[in-house]
Amino acid sequence: MSISRPLVTIVTSTYKHEKFLRRAIDSVLCQDYPEIEYLVFNDGSPDGTEEILKSYGRKLTWESQPNMGETATLNKAIGMAKGSLIAKLSSDDYLYPTAISEAVNQFIAQPNLAVVYSDFDLVDEGGRLLETIQKPDFDFISMVRNHLCLPGPGALFRKDIFDQLNGFDTSLRILFDMDFWWRAALIGPFVRIPKSLSAFRHHRNSQSSAGGEQMAVETIRFVKKYYSLPNLPKKILKEKRNALSNAYYAAGMQLAESRGNLAASKRFLVKSFAYSPRNYFKRTNRDKLICFTNVVISPHILPFVKRVLGRDKKSQFH
After folding, report:
1. Ranges of the chain with pLDDT below 50
2. What is the per-residue pLDDT across 243-275, written as a single tens digit (0 to 9) for each?
């Protein structure tokens, strides 16, 4: 990878997002970094997506194809990329003007990096700010133990690492990126830019909002798959029970919060507790014990549990 203004390829797979697509495209075209290749793949959208793409002329490279899913489409797009650095931008998200240049500067300063990510803004369907998501600094053990997806929209990663890992896992529809970040961390370090450089749009039709039971199942499957990889570092192997405990907790709460299968939610949470009871009694995890009590045991004893824990603040499940 050249350290003098490397070419960055940004890829977007879009499906039925004509309402948001122009904002995503314009945010790439307005970047203050000059060396950008932008590839947009219309993954069989039955709407006005193709007309929008045509309107940009030669400002970007685009292609329409029969629907094959986001994961396979991104693998195809990145396989065609000419850049040594890659960014994946969902068609309902958007970048701020300095997002790419600030990330590239990190790679120039530290060429051994695998991934550069930043904080981001959570916005609603109309683009109104809901909150700024401040991501934690990179900690490999904490990421796996606590079931964290550190990079958000606009994260930059090295193409040679993507190739080495054979791209995104096409058996995963929702959590393919989180699976990729965890595997990339086995190759090189990540760096966080403590600044909001992009926007993640939260709306009812977004994939992360509509995950439900499939997202819960994928959560467990990808963590178990990760722990089947050969030659995992000992420090990561030692975290297996905690990692599975937190994965089952995340899956159980995804179902509970989406009003999904309550029986399955309880099963996931019970397995979470069984993998690591200690996990629930750490001072930093007391919210988990409160949520577990509410979903698995009974909301009627929440006041008692909170008193025992010395908590006065209301839980999100009151």
Report:
1. 1-2, 311-318
2. 999 999 999 988 888 766 788 888 999 999 999
Contacts 24+ apart (CB under 8 A), 201-207: 201/20, 201/92, 201/93, 201/94, 201/123, 201/124, 201/125, 201/127, 202/122, 202/123, 202/124, 202/125, 202/130, 203/92, 203/124, 203/125, 204/125, 205/16, 206/92, 207/70, 207/173, 207/174
Query: Which structural domains are found in the chain, ordered by start?
Result: 8-201 (3.90.550.10), 214-309 (no CATH)
pTM of this prediction? Answer: 0.89
Angle between helices 262-275 and 240-257 (to 10 degrees): 160
- CB distance 161 to 185 below 8 Å: no
